[in-house]
Design a protein that fits this description.
- About 30% of the residues lie in helices and about 35% in strands.
- The protein contains three helices and six strands.
- About 35% of the residues are buried.
Length: about 140
């Protein structure tokens, strides 16, 4: 596990950012709880209000679960708080972006991205050279 938490003028988002933290874990279901607890503790230390922190933790939980399920080697969680917006970026080493098929009835699987889209102000999914990257932005009043 690799962790960094710093107020940084050079952000991993490509522009200056007030606060950011990075967590890298093996892409395994056993590590999803670590990502969730890391997020809750970090956002509390950043004074993010409880209701917004809860939404962020749920988003991280869903994205990390997907990364653990579809990634191969590792998953990385980036949290960046900048001007009232929390940027949540989860990357994994998976090779394809799963698309939900409309002809399959929803069950316990496949609802995670819907939850993320409902809670976040915006979401993006990108296939990168080394895997998949999912970004969600959440407004925060901290």
């Amino acid at each position: 596990m690799f962790v960094t938490d710093s107020p940084s003028p050079s952000s991993l988002l490509g522009r200056p950012c007030r606060r950011q933290a990075l967590l890298t874990l093996p892409a395994q279901e056993a590590h999803v709880a670590t990502a969730r607890h890391f997020t809750a503790d970090l956002l509390e230390s950043w004074s993010v209000p409880a209701s917004e922190r809860d939404s962020a933790v749920l988003i991280v939980d869903e994205l990390a679960a997907n990364a653990a399920r579809y990634g191969r080697e590792r998953m990385t969680l980036l949290l960046a708080l900048d001007h009232g917006t929390l940027h949540i970026v989860v990357t994994d080493s998976g090779t394809t972006v799963e698309r939900r098929r409309p002809d399959i009835a929803p069950d316990e699987h496949g609802r995670g991205t819907g939850i993320v889209q409902c809670l976040a102000q915006s979401t993006e999914v990108h296939q990168t050279r080394s895997g998949r990257e999912v970004r969600a932005c959440l407004r925060c009043s901290s």
